Each structure stands twice: as structure tokens, then as C-alpha cells.
Amino acid sequence: MPQLDVVTFVNQYVWIIGSVSVVVIIMLSVILPSIKKLTQIRGVTEEEIIESKEERDFTSFKKLISL
């Protein structure tokens, strides 16, 4: 039945195009905002440098380990 082969081909084609489009749209909506954040220039002040050198408490990490 050649008609069935054409219908199956068109059906698979529509499903593939639809699913790939959905995946691309979701990936772009997730990845593009994070790329935009990474490309923005951040001003580093002297206070931030000093804060980064201070020791951190890591309370949330300690809570996670203690579970």
C-alpha cells in the first residue's frame, strides 16, 4: 500500500519537525538568559576582592554533609 507509506512518512516528518522545534525553543529559553548574564561586564571593586579572600563559613554545605 503505497499510500500508507506516504502517510507514515509525512506523519514522522511532522512529529520530528515539531519535537525538534520544541526542544530548540526550550533550550534557547534556558541557555540564552544565562549567556546574556555571562556577557555583561561586571565592575570589580576593592571591597569585593577583600570579601573574596575572607574565609567562608559554608553553613549550608556543612548541613548537607551532616545529613
From TrEMBL:
Keyword match Transferase: no
Keyword Transmembrane helix: yes
Gene Ontology CC annotations of this record: mitochondrial membrane
Coiled coil: none
One Pfam family of this chain: YMF19
Keyword vocabulary terms for this entry: ATP synthesis, Membrane, Mitochondrion, Transmembrane, Transmembrane helix
Main localization category: mitochondrion
GO biological process, one term: ATP biosynthetic process
Annotated transmembrane regions: 12-32
InterPro entries with a match to the protein in the record: YMF19-like_N
Start and end residues of each ATP synthase YMF19-like N-terminal domain: 2-53
Subcellular location: Mitochondrion membrane
Name used for this protein in its record: ATP synthase F0 subunit 8
